[in-house]
Amino acid sequence: MVSVYVDGEDKTHQISDWSIYWSDKYEALQLKCYFPSKKTYTRPLSNCCVSPTQELGGRLLIKPGSAIVTPIARATIYGERYAVVHYPNADKPYVFKMDGIGFGESTAMKDAPVFRYFTAVAQARQDRAAAQTDREIAANVVRQLGKLPASADTALQAYCTGRNGALAPGQGLIIRLD
Questions:
Q1: How far apart are CA 134 and CA 89, in angstroms?
Q2: H helices of the chain, where?
Q3: Lowest mean pLDDT among 111-120, 134-143, 153-162
Q4: Exposed/middle/buried for 86, CB within 10 Å: 0-12, 13-18, 19+?
Q5: In this structure, is the dihedral angle defined by the CA atoms of residues 83, 97, 150 and 148, taken in order, positive or negative?
Q6: Whole-number Å distance between alpha carbons of 111 and 90
Q7: Does pTM top 0.70 for this prediction?
Q8: Is 50 exposed, middle or buried (0-12, 13-18, 19+ CB in 10 A)?
């Protein structure tokens, strides 16, 4: 069960619903309470408490049905309904509904000797590039290697660690030729 406190007062049994969103006008997270009378009440989330609240740090944001995995600095999950996600080097947090996202653990893939070798080769190519264009291309490769999420569900993870993941039945085809 979720409890909602606004300015220190328990509003849980007075409200019919609640939501969290980012307000560009106030440049702050807001909690909006919905009452059975159809009236609403909005307060800064910093003046409110939603329980349970869970803090996550240094995880990967995963969107179901998408192959994109994004590293996050931290996330706060409110009432198992909303996640306020802070990305590295971003000022503004992002609000997601929990039914549209998931969180995964980062792996130690980037500490594996194979990944360190890839990074060292890319750095050496950048350091030894004679032409400016070649240096820029090599610098981009180094940058992109640094940005790769260390996700357990990737071929790169399997290659770098020398461990293949379990293959689910019916998931074995990469390409089908008819």
A1: 28
A2: 113-128, 132-147, 155-161
A3: 153-162
A4: middle
A5: negative
A6: 25
A7: yes
A8: buried
